[in-house]
Specification:
Layout (H helix, E strand, L loop, with lengths): L4 H16 L15 H10 L5 H4 L2 H7 L5 H10 L3 H8 L5 H11 L1
Amino acid sequence: MKCNTQSVENDRLASDLAALGYPGFSYLTACSKRNPAEVVLSALQVANLESRLAEALPWVLLQYPDLDWKWLVSQAKANELQNKLGFLTNDPSCANIKRARVESSS
């Protein structure tokens, strides 16, 4: 039986989100906690991301507003994922992120 790579990636992301404290995956056994920016980038790289995982990404951005945005943006650009990142950050639930970033840079 061949292992489905997409399924493994989605399972790993679910575990990563559980480790970050996402309530929707509290039933999962979490591994070690990864950098939230790395988790977001990993999710953006998955071609067929499960909807339950995509729905969790705004939560990560809201819970970790101080994540390494410079690194995340540069890695998204390097991997041609800037449109996906832009789409994610334009989600109405992420409006508070932009406000917080503007206020912290002032």
